[in-house]
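Hey Z.,

So I finally got round to the flavin-adenine dinucleotide thing we talked about over coffee. Here's the setup:
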Amino acid sequence: ENLKTGETFEETYDKLVMTTGSWPIIPPIDGINSENILLCKNYNQANEIIKESKNAEKIVIVGGGYIGIELVEAFAESGKQVTLVDGLDRILNKYLDAEFTSVLEHDLQERGVTLALNQTVEKFVSNESGVVTAVKTPVGDYEADLVILCVGFKPNTDLLKGKIEMLPNGAIVVDEYMRTSDEAIFAAGDSCAVHYNPTGGSAYIPLATNAVRMGALVGKNIVSPTVQYRGTQATSGLYLFGFNIGSTGLTENSAPHFGVEVRSVVVEDNYRPEFMPTTEKVTMKLVYEVGTNRIVGGQIMSKYDVTQSANTLSLCVQNKMTIEDLAYVDFFFQPHFDRPWNYLNILAQAAVEQERKLAK
Ligand SMILES: Cc1cc2nc3c(=O)[nH]c(=O)nc-3n(C[C@H](O)[C@H](O)[C@H](O)COP(=O)(O)OP(=O)(O)OC[C@H]3O[C@@H](n4cnc5c(N)ncnc54)[C@H](O)[C@@H]3O)c2cc1C
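And the result:
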């Protein structure tokens, strides 16, 4: 159907490419249809958020993933009274372990943000005009002029339900050439599941990085299978109140949910020598598989921009490198940038030392 003209038509295809993407999850909570409960997915919604927030003093963000946190930062910076509600006990729990989130949570609270963690929204309360006024959880009531829901995404794949293989959440399963279980249908982006290298299984990780890679591969492979998808580590970066944060692969907290037994090390170091005019602390974590010492994830955070090191760790995960490989990998030294041992070498050496002690 042409949504502008209302005209409907039928079209045949030799090959069909599904890139229908994702849509925010809207949980069936009492009062969810009240005015001023907004979603944050596309350009129009962003404009609506900007417009409505001008007249809002108290803003409640539901969902502490990267979108929710970026909104919290933006509204806190513009002087709003911000509350963040999340059902889990830590912010950004998919990407970071507690060593990192506790620092960020402390920082958010210092800036006046109310963290309502470990509590799920039960009800949205509205006034007689149907405009939201409060968010109710089992722990408390949080006043709100504006609520933004950021509790995750679901694939837009109802059109093909029952016709091709999907994960239980509706994400289309594709092979390494982006082919679905129907040989004439290809798919890419947020409508699909991806091959998650840390576990070797399928996962739903809606990121632009996956979307652009998969889209390019549909083009390469639509005539004949030519270039294989290399999978993903779900590598991501975030800037929050002066902290540069990068993360890749499994966290220590998430690994057991994926059935991977891991150990980890956390190291704090300065990114370059103290004799330089300035330096800055870097906090890093390496997560590796017990038994094989294969690196399955890493996290890094600093006031200095070290986020490209998350990409280096991503490469380690994709190439199944071990802590021993990373401990002695060749990284350059120049005091403007780092030490004779780059901080990632030092991180992996701490893991090797931990294993040496445990083996005794
Ligand atoms: C606020 C926000 C911030 C983000 N930041 C990052 C980031 O920093 N880094 C990152 O990697 N990712 C980020 N993402 C995720 C990224 O935007 C998505 O992974 C990416 O847009 C997916 O692209 P896509 O083309 O697969 O799907 P979409 O962008 O969802 O596009 C799908 C398109 O298909 C259309 N469509 C759906 N159904 C139909 C139909 N039946 N008929 C016709 N058209 C249809 C939709 O209207 C839409 O235009 C962010 C997402 C959000 C919401």
